[in-house]
Amino acid sequence: MYREKNDVRFDDYDAIVVGGGFSGVVVSRELAEHGKRVLIIEKKSEISGMMADYVDENGIIIHKYGPHVFMLNSDEVLAYLKQFCDLLPVTNYVHAFIDEKYVSIPANFYSLDTLYGEEKSKRLQEKMIALYGEGKEVHILTMMSSEDAEIRELADNLYDKIFVGYNAKMWGLKPEELDPSIPGRLPIRISYNDKNCKKKYELIPTKGYKDLFYSIVDSPNIDILLDTKAMDVIGIEGEHVKIEGNNYSGAVIYTAPLDELFSYEYGELPYRALYFEIDVFRGDREAPSAVTTYPMNFDKVRTTDMVELLDQKIDGYVANVSEYPGAYNKESKIFNVPAYPVLNEGSSAIIERYKKKADTINNFYYVGRLAEFKYFDMEASIESALRCSARILKGETKADV
Ligand SMILES: Cc1cc2nc3c(=O)[nH]c(=O)nc-3n(C[C@H](O)[C@H](O)[C@H](O)COP(=O)(O)OP(=O)(O)OC[C@H]3O[C@@H](n4cnc5c(N)ncnc54)[C@H](O)[C@@H]3O)c2cc1C
User: Fold this and answer.
1) Which of 115, 127, 144, 348 would suit a FRET pair with 27, their CA atoms being 20 to 30 Å apart?
2) Which fold would CATH assign to domain 5-47+217-266+342-394?
3) pTM above 0.70, yes or no
4) 41 lines ligand 1 (CB under 6 A)
5) Strands across the sheet with 271-282, in order?
């Protein structure tokens, strides 16, 4: 399955997939199932992209690039995953550390109890039920424009303490620069419902993501070339893909950033990056849940205890992964992995130009969170990768492989 660059004859493959993340391996497997010979080119020394995990010396599964939990609505995606791994249902809760207190989020009646104490919380709850209806979910902007002064004060407080600090830190912006439409997404629940996930299924692969990835690429039709940057092998000349200088007529499926492929011709795409600090120790977790966000103070935005998140039955250990945000810079020592695309007018214009250019290349397909420059959760990544494979296999708009 693994190949060295010197042994590889690129023309032996029907398709070359750049990037061994989720998008890349899903496309590879689909093509392999249809008899196509596929080579995955991955720049790191392992596949699994942002979903990479490992088992540490205490037997604890740790997610290297922050917590990953499947939150699914699609039964098709669930069925797809079940071919490759066993899945364990989990229920995750999240708290924000505010004013030295752990406040349940999304904001709900527990949050009010913690922030205001029983008496004021009860009064606010009654008002909220009367105004919006029990069990409902209200956008914070609706509450910020309430005629009731106490409800407005509550909403302003949640806005300042939960929304402003977190997003300013996450996106590297001053509070006044934050897009005013974003807080509309901050829901306030008129109930004690404190579950984080609103989708049908919340699941983790029982044996971890590495195992899942190896199960997906386990096909005689798939080979993998690690430690190889795409641009060391692939080049674009006009409307042709060249591999080591020669025209390549198979399909090239590209899951890495498009600006890099086109030598930043139209400018660099902006990303936020994360630095991950891993701290495993014997002891008890202070936070009430696996995930704690830090909207105020601290440089980090989030800490996740992997033992609790993955429901690992390992007593007496805490395995914290903390995330520190910064501007992505490919030259940076710590912020050199693009985590979240910064979507604004400027970046949309840039990515559209790259996509337009990529669309002129007949046997070239781009897919995934980097190449499409979109935030994709894992469910959306699978769906997008399966759509891409179907297009290639049908030869719909590009050359048949
Ligand atoms: C902190 C964080 C937490 C997340 N948590 C969740 C979660 O809980 N639930 C959820 O559903 N989703 C979550 N996601 C989203 C999830 O990580 C993505 O949906 C998934 O990783 C997308 O896979 P991908 O293959 O498109 O991209 P990636 O995983 O980034 O894979 C791209 C691959 O391409 C390789 N590559 C890049 N450039 C080159 C090059 N020039 N040459 C060769 N190879 C290259 C990279 O090394 C990488 O292996 C999270 C994302 C982040 C950042």
Assistant:
1) 348
2) Rossmann fold (3.40.50)
3) yes
4) yes
5) 101-105, 94-98, 291-293, 302-305, 317-327, 271-282, 338-341
